[in-house]
Q: What sequence folds into this?
């Protein structure tokens, strides 16, 4: 009995210590103000059905009957749209999966339906319909975001996503003597690549407008807090290394892995004694920006990464202002 009590006591101390460490580790994003992504608010009041179009082109289709609410409840929609890498970095939306797979984002949206300050959710079995502002690419899939204890986001693939896809109706086409006829079909998102390739093979001016419909499919989701349309990248290699900084008195250390010409990045927030990085993906031209902070002063350095980046790497952090920091990110 005494042994059991001692074990419980030790476990309790361990759990408490971990929670304390997490609470004390408060990171700040040094690129938070590079681009401002506005939170758009739409007043839906007691409207039954409405198409909402975001400032960057995201379309959301609201159906009041899909929510468990009263007829008199006044609904608002809050929307944030991210379609560039700088927008993703500004709000620290990593492009990495729960399996450490590197993603290339084709658009991220955050959607919240509210009555007053209270969020409302869909009824069981109901789906929210939306269209992203950019064309679907071969390999694009839907991912839902999960935030950890320090607000780092990780993406989990939603294999249950359905898509209303424009497809060639071969039966009707034959019936009308070869006149190409199209219809919309509810399919698994894994089938989108097949149907888009089918549309690509169709020749002639007649298909021009229909191609646009096919590449902007209507997506049906039940989890819409954070939604990301991405494709998983085949990386060139993975590297493991440790940083040796010329300054050991920094309060906060941020490391950003940037992938040139792609909507892809990974951010890591570390303490000075924890600077070993394992299995970091390398794809095309890759670089690393290291930013340290002390008493609101910033220190930074940038390095190119390749397959030979291994072992201990000496980093010479230099004092930098916010304008110079932004230049490091975009050049």
A:
């Amino acid at each position: 009995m005494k042994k059991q009590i001692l074990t419980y006591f030790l476990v309790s101390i361990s759990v408490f210590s971990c929670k304390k460490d997490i609470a004390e580790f408060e990171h700040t994003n040094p690129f938070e103000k590079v681009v401002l992504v506005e939170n758009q608010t739409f007043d839906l009041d007691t409207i039954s059905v409405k198409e909402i179009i975001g400032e960057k082109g995201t379309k959301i289709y609201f159906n009041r009957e899909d929510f468990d609410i009263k007829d008199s409840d006044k609904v608002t929609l809050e929307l944030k749209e991210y379609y560039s890498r700088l927008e993703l970095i500004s709000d620290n939306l990593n492009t990495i999966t729960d399996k450490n797979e590197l993603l290339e984002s084709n658009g991220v949206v955050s959607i919240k339906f509210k009555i007053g300050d209270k969020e409302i959710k869909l009824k069981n079995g109901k789906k929210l319909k939306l269209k992203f502002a950019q064309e679907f690419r071969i390999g694009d899939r839907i991912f839902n975001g999960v935030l950890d204890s320090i607000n780092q986001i990780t993406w989990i693939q939603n294999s249950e996503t359905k898509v209303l896809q424009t497809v060639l109706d071969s039966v009707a086409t034959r019936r009308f003597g070869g006149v190409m006829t199209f219809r919309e079909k509810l399919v698994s998102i894994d089938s989108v690549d097949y149907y888009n390739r089918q549309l690509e093979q169709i020749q002639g001016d007649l298909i021009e407008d229909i191609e646009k419909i096919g590449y902007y499919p209507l997506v049906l989701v039940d989890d819409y807090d954070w939604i990301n349309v991405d494709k998983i990248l085949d990386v060139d290699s993975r590297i493991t290394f440790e940083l040796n900084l010329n300054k050991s008195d920094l309060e906060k250390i941020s490391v950003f892995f940037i992938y040139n010409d792609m909507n892809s990045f990974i951010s890591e927030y570390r303490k000075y004694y924890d600077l070993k990085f394992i299995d970091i993906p390398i794809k095309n031209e890759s670089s690393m920006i290291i930013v340290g902070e002390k008493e609101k002063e910033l220190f930074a350095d940038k390095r190119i990464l390749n397959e030979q980046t291994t072992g201990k790497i000496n980093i010479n952090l230099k004092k930098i202002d916010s304008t110079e920091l932004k230049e490091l990110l975009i050049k």
